[in-house]
Protein 1
Amino acid sequence: MSDPGLRDLPAVHELLAHPAAAAWADRVAAPVRTRLAQELLAEWRQRLRSGEPSPAADAGGLHEYLGRALASRLEALWRGGLRRVINATGVVLHTNLGRAPLPAAALESAAGLSGYWSLEFDLVSGERGDRSELVADLLRALTGAEEALVVNNNAAAVLLLLSALAAGREVVVSRGELVEIGGSFRVPEVMAASGAVLREVGTTNRTYAQDYERALTAATAALLKVHRSNFALMGFTHEATLEELVALARPRGLRVLFDLGSGALAPEFVPGLPEEPTVSEALGAGVDAVTFSGDKLLGGPQCGIIAGRADVVRACARHPLYRALRVDKVTLAMLAATLRACLHPDRARAEIPALWMLARPAEELARRAEALAGRLRAALGPAADVATQPGASLAGGGSAPARELATTLVRVRPAGLGAAEAARRLRRAEPPVVARVAGEALLVDPRTLDPAEEEPLVRAFAAALGGDAATRAPG
Ligand SMILES: *Cc1c(COP(=O)(O)O)cnc(C)c1O
């Protein structure tokens, strides 16, 4: 038997006729299957030309190997890119894992959306309405805002607010708040994109109300405060309060805008995060408009909310960018369901997963960690050393950066395997498990685990640390 060469590659029609690939014919049309087959063959031509070692044992096995490879690509295409993942990291709002896990009520309301809906239609008058009105009543009742508008995310909310209120004019911001969030949101760049002119004041660590005052000119449109939602400033620091900024702005007819980001509606929703500013408090301080994300401490779908004075919010709704940034009915339905749960904080903390996870008591987490450690010990035997240890969870995702939430971690030290390799195998389990790696151990934080996920998590660990090939997806 010789190594496979270029001449051994099957033709496209031969590859498509392989039984494993042909089994997809009723779900995937011929042009799509052909495109995938051509792509696969092109990669193999390249591979064989460059003399790369081939995983197909020999020339005769190549057709069989490629037929199965094509079938597994069709399967991956069919399943799509989004996969359910078990988040064992203890980071509640994990940006790479979709931030806030959606509340069941939100998912139900999205699933119930078949047919037509009164998205922009006032059923009483028969006239055209605005889609944001569907949730505006809830937002008004929950935050004290006069009006509210919903857009695609908080970055869009800030962009729209600055474009509508301050294009071509100056906006005063503390140097301590020219932040970058998540790699692509940078305050100076968003401001430039909006057409507003940034007027920096103060220093990185200390900015006073007088610094803002000295920067005011005839060109000033607004004072902007930005929540340092993903880092903490400690030591020799000072910042102007929202009340001080309002006192400066009011008599001069200027606006105070607050990019709050994290978006807890009021303190009672996040009792474990006492330093976190909230929407109600900011509006209570007299701020003209607050912007925040729907999928951080509100715990709902991805969106951005502008809440505040009626004239400010209406100016945003009239701006042409709103048309480009607005949300669809699925997002609005999910947001409405999330806000409905917020009408009572007890229900919110029970029904909104992010809030429930943040509020889990340390004693409960300790019990869950002990129980989980026992199950892992039983399942892994000599393949790992399992113990519990005190630790900290994080709110994550641009909220409460300095606050560590007490938890109990399960430490799993694999016997015959590096921790990084074990973590890699866990990520390829079905369902994938994402755990923390610390030195030679994996750490599992029960805070972000639904009790129903413990069983599949234990199975994934057993398969990954036992080296069971079945858990690894075909390459
Ligand atoms: C998270 C955050 C943003 C970006 O919000 P997205 O919803 O990710 O677009 C902007 N500003 C602040 C202060 C934030 O915390």
Protein 2
Amino acid sequence: MTVTAEPRQIYLDNNATTSCALDVVAEMLPFFTEQYGNPSSIHAIGAGVAPSIHTARQRLQALLGAAHDTEIVFTSGGTESDTTAILSALRSLPERREIITSAVEHHAVLSVCEYLAKNEGYTVHVIPVDNQGRLDVKAYEKVLSDKVALVSIMWANNETGTIFPVETLAQMAKAFGILVHTDAVQAVGKIPMRLSNSAIDMLSLSGHKIHGPKGIGALYLKRGVKFRPLFRGGHQERGRRAGTENTAGIVGLGKAAEIAQSGMIDENTRVRNLRDRLERELVARIPNAIITGDPEQRLPNTTTIAFEFVEGEAILMMLSRAGIAASSGSACTSGSLEPSHVMRAMDIPFTAAHGATRFSLSRVNTDADIDRVIEVLPGIIDRLRAMSPYWSAAGAPAAFQPAYS
Ligand SMILES: *Cc1c(COP(=O)(O)O)cnc(C)c1O
């Protein structure tokens, strides 16, 4: 195999995944070699692994501010935690046939809810958001009742970074005996949490979103909350998640949690400043650029900017050629480029939603990364707009001329 030197890549897609921290990898390595034992075994080779798993559990407990380390159940990632939480709640309260969720959830939640509505007859209340991505709390309040088994509403949105008032929502749901789950995959490590004083029953997190390894995550499960496991078999995780432990992954997730906790201040100062500068400079240099999401309640690392009259996919390709990795709000649906469900839920104008581009930073980004984006992106948008039928040669939106009617 030949390895050619690549120009340094600037990675601004940390909400999709992050690089695994070297300290995390270093802690994991022995669990592939000398410490290969099965922690359920009686002999020393197996039993020797158990303390490391215990340490990882405590590190996650600390990051979440949970009351007990036994409230942490290791899973294969955010998707498994989401599915486990949702199905567990429904099976724990079988007489209740309604679910409340939001219009901007990750597909790991939305698809499960859609499936349950379609195939199991559940009524799913999908709470809308306004054009800044803020949840319609009045609409939420209206559908709360003792017919609802589960509220599953994310802590922070992966596309816009908008933070929902999950604690308030959870307290409102408690009055009706509803089980409350939050997908906190994007919030963990970026927002301080104290679950010991919280009305939240279940919370999902994922290793690879916090500079840990892929294929490992956790479900926080408050002590005393009714639970039905998704996987049955072995007694691992106190019978809550059968299957031989992903020991290296668990150790890696624990280390990533520890680093995230100590790096939270950096995330909320330096990383936030980088993000704010990127936004400020791009909006100053590029006309018709709309910053999406809640201007106040937003993750420090995330910005999605909708560039009007250009295709997000084209922006990403040209950025990629310049060595910059970002992502678009669009998902490719059956060959046609559809704006994402998040942009649609926010009612971002069609001409802008198509140009939505997400930059998600992390603690590995530098000032130089941001300088480079500010340097190349205005030219890219100019070139793409020059080819757009909706953008006049004068450098402004052309009179809107639908190509078809
Ligand atoms: C990435 C992500 C997930 C899925 O997590 P995996 O560990 O990749 O399964 C779920 N929810 C949100 C908000 C995410 O960003």
Protein 3
Amino acid sequence: MDNEVHRGFETLAIHAGQEPDPTTGAVVPPIYQVSTYKQDGIGGLRGGYEYSRSANPTRTALEVCLAEIEAGTRGLAFASGLAGEDALIRAVCKPGDHVIIPNDAYGGTYRLFAKVAEPWGVEFDPVPLLDVAAVAAAVRPETKIVWVETPTNPLLAIADIRALAQIAHDAGALLVVDNTFASPYLQRPLELGADVVVHSTTKYIGGHSDVIGGALVVADEALGEQLAYHQNAMGAVAGPFDAWLTLRGIKTLGVRMDRHCANAERMVEMLTRHPAVREVLYPGLPGHPGHDVAAKQMRAFGGMVSFRMESEEAAVRVCERTKLFTLGESLGGVESLIEHPGRMTHASVAGSPLEVPADLVRLSVGIEDADDLLRDLRQALD
Ligand SMILES: *Cc1c(COP(=O)(O)O)cnc(C)c1O
């Protein structure tokens, strides 16, 4: 595309890494379902491709697109969000190092640190990231990563990316931001000083609950090289069809997020007034402790809404009574989902510092008709 053409977010989402195919003119990158590539003489690679674990053209299209929509220099696509996290931890840390993670980190991230990284020798401390002084106090000489999620899952706490980047960098550590809940349409951590963005592309980026995938995006080219080395050495890459599905999802990320956010606000409005609901957790609410920071670093407040009922039984009952909101784990797809974190997504952190309230309900608000969604939630609450 002509360099003179301005490329805003939605333009990048549709075109970055996806020039029409030079041989056929196809406007969508083909699914290169191939493992190896003919060499014109030993080492004579035609398009720079030799073996699809190292690189594959469909995955390259996705990786270029991810880098551009996150304002980074390098994107790397993995078989899952956790595969990307694993490659990142192994590339950056060695036994004896230390990591700070959110005290309400995604359960799988906590498990990766507690059951895989720690036995390997990497220590970690869960810290409430809202408390910048607590993060600064938890930093040690061995700290290599300050790991941030914002908004968090499922409590939707907000962390100040700029302030935490300062603390991490003063300590010689990297600031890693899991941007899964916000998506790059709502928040671009690299522009706020982060070093690495992590995604479960399974969620909003893919957006259709039809693919498992993960991504790392970095600002620094040398760090990008190091992560690419580990991606190839460890091998948990995104396959061509998964990469293609994810690219297709990205094209509509902006319009989907606008609707996710608008629908979420409608649910919040109703829930805050409903007598059976004790508390609504949503960063868009002026009373939310992270509201001001969220307003500063996010374009809008996202499609995830959590709320607390009077009891665990009441929370479970709501989850089992909705008809349009599907009872299920995961999030970020076009269809609305409801779940009970204490017994579902966060059952594995019961008894740990990351345990979540038993009366909590989590919604992933989809892009269906908002009035239909409101009716469904109301009948489940009444
Ligand atoms: C789902 C999720 C992950 C893990 O991603 P997978 O694709 O399931 O491996 C990591 N972080 C957050 C915030 C998530 O929601």
Protein 4
Amino acid sequence: MIKCVKCNAKYDDNEVIYNCKECGSVLEIFVDIDKSEVPKETFDCRKDTLWKYKEFMPVDETKIISLDEGGTPFCKCNKIGEELGVDLYVKVEGSNPTGSFKDRGMSVGITKASELGVDTVGCASTGNTSASLAAYAARAGLRCVVLLPSGKVALGKLAQAMFHGAEVFSVNGNFDEALETVTALALEKHLYLLNSINPYRLEGQKSIGFEIIHELGWESPDRIILPVGNAGNISAIWKGITEFHNAGYIDELPMMTGIQAEGASPITNAFRKNTMDMVPVENPETVATAIRIGAPVSSIKALRAIYDSNGYSDTVTDEEILDAQKELARYEGIGVEPASAASIAGLKKLVEEGVVEKGEKIVCIVTGHLLKDPNTAINACTKPIEIDADIEALKKVLLNK
Ligand SMILES: *Cc1c(COP(=O)(O)O)cnc(C)c1O
Ligand SMILES: [Zn+2]
């Protein structure tokens, strides 16, 4: 069943619908499972993908389109953790098939698209959604249309969208405007929209929450920190965690902590005023292009997640993001794109401010791979030193350092 998050209006699972017909608000899928029906041991000896939790995935099991997404690394990070005085785990979503967590949402979203029998899918994207959709649409044999904000998509993501055969359009405007345009096309039924306004996307992404709980031995961390752009992922993870809580697998719940870039922070602004009313940011700007979003479509769900979990939201500067990106790469060997590092930058800030307490068990989600944005990575480094192919030349430079 599909349900409106505001007025509780209900819709059939197979209705193609993106907003409530009664009140215009966003929708979510209702899933209710009891541990007596599905004991948690059920998940133990299955292959390590998100479909391990298929009982919680509201799609036709015989139609699954998958690239073995999910089951991503869960790395204990002692160097950064000890420096900050917390017990730190990093969930590395860049290890998904196309290099971001979007693959989880797309696997379920494209499975639903196949079930519905649509022939064209589409999205607006800051880059990763289009890379992922292009790959999954190719696998399902569907036509794929993507709209990207002109000049603001990282190189790796653009390469993926084009190479997997999507019809790529460069929009003169920002992400929010591109999304409005493609949504209008979807409402005229020219394509099936797979942005995170589509509630099936979040059904896949909630598996990040499932995996964290499972990895920690059926316990909740104290806090989950992640970057927030369109605000789908924080909503999805909270949905997953509450479903496991409702099923009776865990007793405690984590504080959901959303980090935004200073130049694109409508969710944090609302949190600071303790309101549900998100005011869009005009002309959002940040080096972290994946979260360069001014009017997040899932703001209601995200703010609910933050308030209901006694969580928090804060901003970080581009400089803090790039510093954290470098620290994660240099101290822990984990290469992420700038947006992902907002979680680590946010953790550092919240420890300084005393919001995060010493000894907390914290999971930071890092959302996309370093290679998504090679230009930013290269610009942050000094150029390689040129030498002749000769041992003496090499020794001269190396040993004099
Ligand atoms: C999409 C994306 C985000 C933002 O996620 P939302 O669900 O839009 O809040 C953050 N980081 C990366 C790398 C992304 O691709
Ligand atoms: Zn409604």
